[in-house]
Design a protein that fits this description.
signal, mainly alpha, hydrolase activity, Cell_wall_hydrolase_SleB, Cell wall hydrolase SleB domain-containing protein
């Protein structure tokens, strides 16, 4: 009889450990330890995402040692046109609409931010969900092309082939060492309020990059 009671107590204790935290409303919530809490409703959107963690940012690249990798158009020109699944398509489109006029290095830097978000645990855990986050919510789009009302048709196919190669390399774990782990960026032509709240980590091409500190 004592064995059954002990087993029941142990099971109840384990269930308590595994239970999610709940607010008074009964909805599951995550503890708000982010420095972005001070920014209120106007903060760049950050939502906890299960199944991802910062450790993924430290993955070893799958590019073979000695691969002639370079963040240059000369290198990109040696590669065949890329293709891939929905994740590749989403990353390619984001690079096309956000940065197709950038240098090759600038494209890689923007791709870093998108993949850093995916792997951070603070944003959705897929590229497609990252680039579409906030769509349909006023002032909450994380990437301007998703809410600018303009057509998403590809009118510059050569530019899309170029960004597609960058997307393929980055999804295949090309090194992410340009932006210092940045999660945010903006062009030099604007000065968003939040840029003063974060740590500036790099300036590459037309973009400034930031970490959350």
């Amino acid at each position: 009889m004592m064995t059954l009671v002990a087993s029941a107590r142990r099971a109840a204790f384990l269930l308590l450990l595994c239970a999610p935290a709940f607010a008074d409303t009964g909805s599951p919530v995550a503890a708000d330890t982010s420095p972005l809490a001070v920014l209120g409703d106007d903060a760049p959107l950050i939502e906890p995402s299960r199944g991802a963690g910062l450790s993924r940012l430290l993955r070893e690249p799958r590019l073979p040692p000695g691969a002639d990798f370079a963040r240059t158009d000369t290198y990109l020109d040696t590669l065949p046109a890329a293709s891939g699944d929905a994740e590749w398509q989403c990353l390619s489109e984001a690079l096309y609409f956000e940065a197709r006029g950038e240098s090759a290095e600038g494209l890689f830097a923007v791709a870093e931010v998108i993949l850093n978000r995916r792997d951070s645990g603070l944003y959705p855990a897929t590229v497609c969900a990252v680039v579409s986050q906030g769509t349909g919510r006023r002032y909450q789009c994380q990437f301007s092309y998703a809410c600018d009302g303009a057509s998403d048709a590809i009118h510059e196919p050569e530019a899309f082939v170029r960004v597609g190669k960058v997307a393929r390399l980055m999804l295949d774990d090309a090194p992410r060492d340009l932006t210092g782990g940045a999660l945010f960026y903006h062009t030099k032509s604007v000065s968003p309020y939040w840029s003063h709240r974060f740590d500036h980590s790099a300036t590459i091409g037309a973009h400034l990059f930031y970490t959350s500190g």
